[in-house]
Amino acid sequence: MSLWLLNQFSTFTLAAVVVGGTVLLAVAGTVLLRRRYPSVARGEHNDMVGVTLGMFGAIYGIILAFVIVTLWTQLESTQTIVASEATDAALIARDAAAFPAPVRARLDTAMSGYVHAVVEDQWPRMRAGDPSYGATESHLRAAFQALQEYDPKSRSEQVFYEEAVAHLNDVASQRRARITMARQELPPLLQALAFGGALVLVPLTFLYGLRKLRVQILFVASVAGLVGFSLLLVFVLDRPFSGDLSVSPAPYREGALARYWSR
């Protein structure tokens, strides 16, 4: 469900629904509670509610901050993995220029097929939360086979051969890391803690009575807006390959790999 929402709606739309909905529900809850229990407006229990709200808010804030920082770090790590994989593929394409024409042609065909499969086949699968090794396996195997069957003759070819093998091993390693990141999501317990905590913190603000309704609405709406925006960040950052803030496949179309897309 979360993947479908991220891929079907813009971040702005999700923000309007999540943040706006949280604020509206909080304001409505405050107004209804004051009408049902007019004594709340007198603030008879503000001392106890204030202490409870402060303690719970501090603990919940630390938890949300930890979750958001972790997810943001995960997104940055995923971007680094994608950039590294594309860079290694581009270096293989450059190293292949030192090899005889038949070997160079085989490597070019394999790497061209690989980057096309990553962008056109694997990327949509990762956006949908269903990554697969099979989309690129045959192309990666063809690149390994081309290098395994080649015996460099000159010293120059030997140097570039060793570099190409090392970069190809790195591509295989980065591919595994990328697919692993595409499968990761926030553990259910942390999801329950992040979203369930909001269901406790926001209603607690209803109990903090203020004589003027407008002032209380402003107080409740501010807390609800902050909580809603934090939950929105958790929601959109949880899946690094889905939504508007997702990792882009652009590195596989740039630099030395651009010629594979101009054919």
Task: Describe what this molecule looks like in 3D.
The structure is a single chain. With 263 residues, this protein is an all-alpha fold. The chain is 75% helix and 0% strand. α2 runs antiparallel to α8. The longest helix is centred in the first third of the chain and has 50 residues. The mean pLDDT is 90.
Number of strands: 0
Helix content: over 70%
> Percent of residues in beta strands?
under 5%
Mean residue pLDDT: 90
Q: What's the number of helices?
A: 8
Given as residue ranges, the uncertain stretches (5+ residues, pLDDT < 50) are: none
Which features characterize this protein?
single chain, 263 residues, mainly alpha, 8 helices, rod-shaped
Helix-strand blueprint:
Blueprint (H helix, E strand, L loop, with lengths): L1 H7 L2 H26 L9 H50 L5 H27 L6 H15 L6 H29 L4 H19 L6 H25 L26
Task: Summarize the model shown.
The protein is mostly helical and 263 residues long.
